[in-house]
Design goal:
By secondary structure, the chain is α/β, with parallel strands linked by helices. It has 12 helices and 12 strands. The longest helix is centred in the N-terminal third of the chain and has 21 residues. The structure holds serine.
Amino acid sequence: MGSERILITGANGQLGTVLTERLIKMHGSDNVIVTDIKTPENNYTNFELLDVLNAVAIEEIIQKHRITTVYHLAAILSATGEKIPMKCWHVNVTGYLNILEACRKHNVQKIFYPSTIAVFGDDAQKVKAPQDSPLNPSTVYGMSKVSGEQWSKYYFNRYGLDIRSIRYPGVIGYQSLPGGGTTDYAVEIFHEALIHGTYTCFLSANTGLPMIYMEDVINATLDIMKADRDDISVRSSYNIEGASFTPAEIASEIQKHLPQFKMQYAPDERQAIADSWVSSLDDSKAREDWNWKPTFTLPEMTKDMIQNLRDLGVNESKKKLIKEI
Ligand code: SER
């Protein structure tokens, strides 16, 4: 068998930006086909514009580049999804089915599919939500990802497609900005704290949510993909957690580095979404099956975020900062 040939969708997103760089470092730019619906700022050797709703284009790319592994990151997140529910369902579910069908037809060996904490609903246990919690989400994004988890299991059982999946918590990183999610505040807060010294949070002070640092989430993604096929006992999606915290807790952690920092609260429609999710996860199955272990605590991620954003010159303008990375 030749070397791994990777396709990544949604490569311009918060996670895609960082995962793409890491995959190129590991496999070489010739072996990583980078795609997104928009042209990236970065100059990739192999970039193709790709709308995941275009099933024909997906098949063409997979065949042309002899793809063996797909990281399917393209999706519309929770808050945006509530504004455009039909589009969210279409992109997240039909888009994923287009990927699955193309992979099945053209013998792709492995797929990574990101699920989310949005799969949980009001009836799930809020603290340390178990791996096999009931999944009755209230958002279209959550519904689309529950459906994606089930389709993953179906394609594995029916066709043997080796799909691996993680329920991503809110992701915090200095390299890129999130877009359209309910956990976005936990990134925005750092930029605003450094630029203006204040932040008005769209969630209330005591809204606890599962979160994770970028470094940990990238390692988790690569580790689950490296694991032995037989060690993956969960074929829907694994709970993982880095550090769970509330807006008040992250604000007080930031104040240890920036004592003048002031936080205000003005909850908007995203509060109801956050309230319907769980506040922490039991990730023991991921720890057991493929040795998942987070390394960044809230104090560590706070220190690292502030240091890196300062080094990158966040004071200029956050938009400029993101473009320069
Ligand atoms: N970060 C996502 C969101 O807030 C959750 O997966 O929508």
